[in-house]
Amino acid sequence: MPKHAHLQQPTKTSQQAKADAIAKAQDMAPDLSIHIGSTPETPFRGDPDIFGRLVEDHDRHRALLAMIQQTHGKSEDRQLLFKELVKELKSHAAAEEQALWSTVLREPTTTEDARHAVAEHKELDDMLADLAARDMASSGWLRRFAALKEEYLHHIGEEEQEQFVAAEKILTDADRKYMRKVFERRKNEEKAAVKIEKKIKLKA
Ligand SMILES: [Fe+2]
Ligand SMILES: [Fe+2]
After folding, report:
1. Has residue 110 been placed in a domain?
2. Residue range 18-61, pLDDT digits in tens
3. Could you read off the pLDDT of 87-105 as tens digits, one per residue?
4. Is residue 6 part of a domain?
5. Domain of 44?
6. Which of 9, 51, 81, 201 has the most CB atoms in a 10 Å sphere around its CB?
C-alpha cells in the first residue's frame, strides 16, 4: 500500500501535483519560461493532508523564484512577481506557524524542529524587507535576490526532508487533515492582509 493511502481522499500523483503548482505561478507571467530544476525527494508531494498542501505551495514558490530570475530591471513582470512572492512567502509562513509549528513546538521531541523552521522564517522576512527597500533596477538587486532564493530553497528543502518528517511522527491522520483546513483558511486571511515591509536590514 502506498504511503498515506489510508487517508481516503483523492491523491494527486507527485508529478501532477508539481506540474499544477508550477502552472499556477506561470499564470502570472505566461511569457516567462520556468526552470525550477530538480527538487529534493519528498514523500509528501501530492498528499491530501497538511504536508501535501505545504509542498504544493513550496513548488509554486520555486516557480516564482525561477521566474523572477528571468526578469530584467524594474520591469512590470519583476514588480508584479516580486509583490506576489512577498505576499505568498509571508502568508505561507504565518499560516504554517499557526497550523503546524505551534502544535509541533509543544511536543518535546519536536520542539527543536519547530524552532528551527520559525527562526528561518524571521531571517527570510528580513531578507524580503531588505529587497523590497532596494532599487530593482540596480545591478545589486538580482545578486541579493539570488541570495534570498538560495536561503528559501534551503529552508523548504529542509522542511520537506527533515522537519516535516519529524512532525509527521507525532501527528494523527485526523490532526493532519484538520491542519490542512486551518492552513487553508489562515493563509487566505493572512495573504489578504499582508503589508509589504520595506526596510534595509542587511549590510552585504
Ligand atoms: Fe517554512
Ligand atoms: Fe513551508
Report:
1. yes
2. 999 999 999 999 999 888 888 999 999 999 999 999 999 999 99
3. 999 999 999 999 999 999 9
4. no
5. 11-193
6. 51
CA of 172 to the centre of ligand 2 (A): 20
1 by DSSP, 3-state: which? coil
Q: How many helices (H) and strands (E) does the chain have?
A: 8, 0
Expressed in angstroms and rounded, the spacing between residue 44 Cα and the centre of ligand 2 is: 12
The amino acid sitting at 11 is T
Residue 204 covered by a domain: no
- What pLDDT was estimated at residue 81? 98
Distance (angstroms) between ligand 1 centre and the Cα of 18 equals 18
* Residue 162 counted as domain residue: yes
Domains contained in the chain, number:
1
pLDDT at 9 over 70: no
Query: Which ligand minimizes its atom distance to the CA of 121?
Result: 1
